[in-house]
Write a structure and sequence with these properties.
With 321 residues, this protein is mostly helical. The protein has helices at residues 9-27, 35-50, 58-79, 88-101, 104-119, 123-130, 143-187, 199-222, 226-236, 245-256, 284-319; strands at 259-266, 269-277. Helices cover 69% and strands 5% of the residues.
Length: 321
């Protein structure tokens, strides 16, 4: 197998990140044959085989969910160790896997049309578009607030979490993260069918997102009103039900000087979510500001990664002088 020459290790990993982000910017989400569609089919089959019905006892149901998750996630993730990133073929596969795991362009393509519809007075169209990216009841949701919350949180789930685990653990890491994240989206509902069966996937997703969420929150704070973002993170995030969504959205809201959260209806039931951030209620133009914050964070991470390579190469050359 042809080996790459001149680059290896960390510089090669950073190059893979850069190329994957450029592919995402150029192509967006694959419209056909997306690997996660096939994984979703596999997960649905595993659920039907192992669920056992809603009358199964709690710990039995949790064990069944753990087995289902382990069988399909870890078997695929372990296959990632077969990818040799130092070879030309392995490097290309790594780039393609990371590209399929991130969704910067997809997030932008879903969020900005909501802003455009609101700006042209098409509130019904904006509400319909926002319903595609949030799980709230469309008829009662505050469209700008819901869209901004989704953009901030999906920045972590759909971009920075995948980048973090690829940088930390390569192809196996990003595969495990993205597959667990997908299972949490499929099984993480607090409904009679999934409350216990999806417990293992939800807990592992919380664990895998713990560090990425806090790095995302720090990045949002650096690119906006830093002091307010950090204050909101410290004071408001502990009141959120999500251990990772709280820091991300509180910091993002503070960075943007906006008020998010508050009463929200899901599937006909009102939840009194804590207020996040500080300032005015968001308007249509604030959706663009939120998306710019997410995109700015992508640029910030890239700059820091490239700087780490430059510094590392310079230190290496000094060491050989």
């Amino acid at each position: 197998m042809t080996e790459l020459t001149g680059l290896s290790g960390w510089p090669l990993t950073v190059l893979a990140v850069l190329l994957a982000l450029l592919l995402d910017l150029w192509l967006g989400e694959p419209r056909r044959y997306h690997p996660l569609v096939g994984f979703g089919w596999l997960a649905s089959r595993a659920e039907r085989w192992l669920h056992g019905g809603e009358n199964v006892r709690k710990w039995n149901q949790r064990f069944r969910g753990l087995i289902a998750m382990s069988l399909i996630v870890f078997s695929i993730s372990l296959a990632g160790f077969l990818v040799d990133q130092d070879s030309v073929l392995g490097f290309c596969i790594s780039v393609l896997i990371l590209y399929s795991a991130i969704g910067h362009r997809s997030l932008r393509d879903h969020v900005l049309p909501v802003a455009r519809s609101l700006e042209t007075g098409d509130e019904a169209g904006a509400r319909q578009q926002a319903a595609m990216i949030v799980s709230r009841d469309p008829a009662t949701m505050d469209v700008p607030r819901s869209t901004i919350e989704s953009a901030l949180e999906n920045g972590c789930d759909g971009i920075f979490g995948a980048l973090f685990w690829f940088l930390l653990a390569g192809v196996p890491g990003v595969l495990c993260y993205r597959l667990v994240n997908t299972l949490d989206a499929m099984w993480g509902y607090r409904s009679p069918r999934y409350l216990h069966f999806g417990w293992a996937a939800a807990k592992l997703d919380d664990l895998l997102n713990y560090l990425p969420a806090r790095l995302t929150a720090i990045s949002y704070a650096l690119l906006g009103d830093s002091l307010l973002a950090l204050q909101c993170w410290q004071n408001q995030a502990p009141h959120c039900s999500s251990p990772n969504g709280g820091p991300v959205m509180a910091s993002g809201a503070g960075a943007l000087q906006l008020s998010l959260g508050g009463p929200t209806r899901y599937r006909g039931e009102w939840l009194d979510k804590p207020v996040l951030g500080a300032g005015e209620a968001p308007l249509a133009q604030d959706i663009r500001r939120a998306m710019a914050l997410v995109s700015g964070t992508v640029a910030l991470w890239l700059v820091l990664l490239v700087l780490s390579v430059v510094i590392g190469l310079n230190l290496g050359s000094f060491g050989h002088a």
